[in-house]
Automatic annotation (TrEMBL):
UniProt xrefs under PANTHER family: CYTOPLASMIC PROTEIN (PTHR40590:SF1), CYTOPLASMIC PROTEIN-RELATED (PTHR40590)
Leader sequence segment: 1-26
Matches recorded under Pfam families: TraB_PrgY_gumN
Superkingdom of origin organism: Bacteria
Organism name: Shewanella vaxholmensis
Keywords: Signal
Protein name: TraB/GumN family protein
């Protein structure tokens, strides 16, 4: 599997559930979620990112690029350079007949959804049959994104790691924990991911990036919650967003409190984690940190 595909796998809160706009906007006019965190004399910048993009995303807005220039370390969800992707695929990404996670075990609704799609893209369907459904969904979405002109090569976190290679990189999670998370969903939830990847309209696929680039945090929160099941089914929200927000907030506080980690840090996590009333931002404030929204307040 190509490296770019593994990069998308690392972006849990966008896997099989989100989409990107083809609207071209100058990066300098963008206002993605961006904050400064101050805690016990240390500081960090926090950027809500997306994990797939285009060349015209860069350079990022001046305020963000300036903050990057001050950073003494880069903090990401997962540094895939530290992961054994092949081993993780073997352990968590394969079809499993005993759990109803193989091609022959698809439910009627999934078969009906996939049949017309596979008739038009037989080579794609053939290539994903050996994968667990969550990984099938990831691949299907990646193909749709690529067709819209977007690539994980231009994902914000991967671009920052590449462009600032001299900075130490810290991760808030591990690749294995993210693979474990997706593999933990039962067959019904995983096949639902596949159906969503095929049936979501282009209009819905194009909504998230417009909200991200304009800094519409309320819209970002609404999109994430709706695409992860909404109020009627909170399992995915709980596992993919809310629980992990605690892990990320705790990790940021730990890094900022470490005498071995220089300040300021530049933290980049999926935008879904920094919006809403259960976000990393809210958790950092509850832990006693001062968090400033840099598009509305003065950030140093």
């Amino acid at each position: 599997m190509a490296t770019s595909q593994w990069r998308l796998i690392a972006a849990i809160c966008f896997l099989a559930l989100t989409g990107w706009s083809t609207k071209a906007v100058s990066a300098e006019t963008d206002k993605p979620p961006f904050y400064q965190v101050q805690w016990q004399g240390k500081s960090a910048y926090l950027l809500g990112s997306i994990h797939i993009g285009r060349a015209d995303f860069y350079p990022l807005p001046t305020q963000i690029e300036t903050s990057l220039g001050k950073a003494k370390g880069l903090v990401v969800e997962v540094d895939m350079n530290k992961a054994d992707s092949n081993a993780l695929l073997r352990q968590y990404g394969r079809a499993d007949k005993t759990k109803g996670l193989d091609w022959q075990s698809r439910d009627k609704q999934t078969v009906e959804s996939m049949t017309p799609y596979c008739a038009a893209t037989a080579n794609v369907c053939q290539s994903i049959q050996s994968f667990a459904p969550w990984l099938q969904a990831t691949q299907l979405n990646l193909i749709r994104y690529n067709n819209l002109g977007y690539s994980t090569d231009y994902g914000v976190d991967m671009q920052l790691i590449a462009r600032h290679a001299a900075l130490p990189v810290y991760q808030l999670e591990t690749a294995e924990s993210q693979f474990q998370l997706l593999a933990s969903f039962d067959s019904q939830a995983q096949w639902s991911m596949v159906r969503e990847a095929i049936s979501t309209s282009d209009a819905d696929l194009l909504s998230l990036i417009a909200a991200w680039r304009s800094g519409n945090e309320a819209e970002l929160d609404n999109i994430m919650q709706e695409q992860m099941g909404g109020e009627d089914d909170t399992e995915m929200l709980e596992k993919i967003l809310w629980r992990r927000n605690h892990v990320m907030a705790d990790g940021i506080i730990k890094l900022m409190g470490s005498t071995d980690v220089a300040s300021p840090l530049f933290v980049v996590v999926g935008a879904g984690h920094v919006v809403g009333d259960k976000s990393v931002v809210q958790l950092l404030e509850r832990a006693g940190a001062k968090v400033s929204a840099c598009w509305k307040q003065t950030c140093e």
